Amino acid sequence: MPKGYAIKDVKNWTDFQVIDFDLKKPADDDIDIAITHYVDCIGDGEGYMVDTYNSIWPDGSIAQGGYSTNIRTPEQFVFPIPDGMKSEHAAPMLCAGLTLYSPLRRNNVGPGKRVGIVGIGGLGHFGVMFAKAMDAEVIAISHSASKKEDALKMGASQFIATKEDPNWFERFKNKPFDLIVNTASSAAVDIPAMISALKVDGSIISVGMPEDLIQLRVQNLAMRCSSIGSSHIGSKVEAMEMLKLANEKNVVPWIELIDMKDCSKAIERVSKGDIRYRFVLKQDLEKPE
């Protein structure tokens, strides 16, 4: 009889226990996580070793991802949720939250650091809250001022609307950023302006994924000895740290909880920008056994 882990209290997701179980034949709407390729990893970089996005299984079925009603996964990728944290709050942290926490952590964000978060949306709002929870000074940067009040409530000390203040970067020449995390999905973001607002040896990490090419002269980077990079979600170590930090510092995502049967409505609203700041789908297609 195979052995696996079960959750003692499904409502709270606080602990695991080893149990015997009968193997279940995967259904069409199940997801089965498998390691599909390897790359050289440093330390806790296993998040760069697994990818099931748009996967097609050997039988020809398509991975259902977050729309699955059941999941079977190796222990390495199972995360106990801290006591007191709601599942609907933990869920978006394991994707959008970790996508922002990882570059903050890997760039040693903490007291005395000045961090800019470009784009205040499903990703960016996590960046503001986590940078604040890590005791850094965080400045929210957005195209318009429509989210200013929200960003300040999340913990930003300043808010910049680039449409209203196109030369915003000039005021940071004497108080530059250690790190700017760019969550924008548009290639129209002014990267050279961001670079000019960095400290010497500062960095820009882009976690937004625009489809178009971003053009940049190497000279822009050379003048600040700066760097630009990207990041892809994060590791289990980082996920556990993130959940602990969120629980201790009361980091609560701004979400809207909806039934999974209404996911098409959520997608339509996302396309219109009608969400502040993350939808969470509640599984209502099958009753728990």
TrEMBL record:
Catalytic EC class: oxidoreductase
One Pfam family from the record: ADH_zinc_N
GO molecular function: alcohol dehydrogenase (NADP+) activity; metal ion binding
Cofactors: Zn(2+)
Entry-linked InterPro entries: ADH-like_C (IPR013149), CAD-like (IPR047109), GroES-like_sf (IPR011032), NAD(P)-bd_dom_sf (IPR036291)
Key words, A-Z: Metal-binding, NADP, Oxidoreductase, Phosphoprotein, Zinc
Keyword NADP: yes
Catalytic activity from the UniProt record: a primary alcohol + NADP(+) = an aldehyde + NADPH + H(+)
Subunit structure: Homodimer.
Family per similarity comment: Belongs to the zinc-containing alcohol dehydrogenase family.
Name used for this protein in its record: alcohol dehydrogenase (NADP(+))
Species for this entry: Malassezia vespertilionis
Record lineage: Eukaryota, Fungi, Dikarya, Basidiomycota, Ustilaginomycotina
